[in-house]
Structure formats: C-alpha cells, structure tokens
Amino acid sequence: MSPTAKAEYLKKIIPRYRKASKTEKNMILNEFCTVCHYNRKYAIRLLNNGFYTNNKSNLLRRGRKKQYDHPMIIEILTEIWIKTNLPCSKRLKAILPLWLPFYEYELPEEVKKALLAISPATIDRLMLTMRSKYLKQGLATTKPGSILKKHIPIKTNQWDETRPGFLEADTLAHCGSSVSGMFIYSINCVDIATSWTESRAV
C-alpha cells in the first residue's frame, strides 16, 4: 500500500473512529493495523492526533496554514522597526498602517494584508532573533524624580491643550550610544495643539 493510499485511508476512517464506541474502536484499530502494517501504538496516535502520511514526508500534522511565512514579512518588519528607532511590538503594530502606504517598493497584496493584521505577540515571535542584534540609538541621561514630584503642587485643570500656547519641554542628549566625551544637549519645546517644535542647543 502506497503512502498516499494510506493517507487517504486514514482520512476516511478518522471520523468513523472518533464517533465509535469502545468496542467498535478496537475493531477499527485492528483493521487499520492489518491493512497498513502499523504498530498498534503508532496507529492509535495517528487516529487520535490527526496525523497522516504522504509521499513527501513521514508525518504531516493537520492544522492552520502558517499566515506569516512569507520571507518579505520579516524583512519589512525589521526595516521599519530599525527606521523608527526600535519601538516595542505594540508601538510597531500602530506604526505599520502609517508607514506601509509610503514604503519604497510595491508590496504584494497578501503581504500588506498580513502586516496590517499581525498582532504584537506575533511580531515579538518573528523578530526574536533580530532584537539582540540592534541597540536603541540615544540614551536617557535623566531619571524621574518621583520623591521631588510629590512636594511640588501642580494644577492640571487650567490647561486647554486644544489651543496654542501649552508646551511640553524636555532635554535631549546628542551623545549617540555613549555619554563619554564631548557632546551637546538640546532643549526641545513642542506646542501640544499645533505640534510646532523649537529646539535650542545648551
């Protein structure tokens, strides 16, 4: 009996085996072992787990087709991830719809759909090996002053962020990946309503 014939035979008897009583299952199992010349334990595993043999491989498991096995998906994810300064998977998921329309090459439709549907957990799984190869550019040279913050009263109900004039300000260290040696800081002010930005070296 050829592997293909065995696979077809197995697919036919699996539904019958799973609906059968204990006595009937024993009869089907005996018949399956006799016809295919399988070891009894191996035959039980095939019938219970839904494995079947074919002419290309010894075992093939039935299940969902891999959705993200296209080689372009990891390549595009990695490229956008690097260009956006290595964000976490949740941020990268939010970034993809904004960047994909302006990608430099025309992408196949199935790749676009897969990238837009991908979950943060799948991004983490696909890029597990890539994350260790790259370091985030820029260092934070300040620490949050949680103790000091408790002693400074701040009113927040007087801000109207829908009109110009309310700013967010922070310093940025232009030091690359190391704080050793000479480098400059810049102070950056962003108007929340208009996104107008002003930077000055300090």
Question: How would you describe what is shown here?
Answer:
It is a single chain. This protein is 45% helix and 11% strand. The chain has 202 residues and is of the alpha+beta class. It is elongated and about 85 Å long. It folds into three domains: 3-61, no CATH class; 71-131, no CATH class; 146-201, no CATH class. A hairpin with a 7-residue loop joins strand 1 and strand 2 (60-61). It starts with a helix and ends with a strand.
What keyword list fits this structure?
11% strand; 202 residues; 5 strands; three-stranded antiparallel beta sheet; 45% helix; two-stranded antiparallel ribbon; 9 helices; alpha+beta; 3 domains
Strand order of the largest sheet: 3-4-5
Q: Give the low-pLDDT segments.
A: 51-61
**Biggest sheet, in brief?**
3 strands, antiparallel
- First CA to last CA: what distance? 82 Å
Radius of gyration: 30 Å
As for the number of domains, it is 3
Query: What amount of the residues lies in strands?
Result: 5-15%
Oligomer: single chain
Helical stretch count?
9
Estimate the helix proportion, in percent: 40-55%
- Shape from CA axes? elongated
- Mean pLDDT, as a whole number? 80
Q: Using DSSP, what is the number of strands?
A: 5
Order of helices and strands: HHHEEHHHHHHEEE
Structural category is alpha+beta
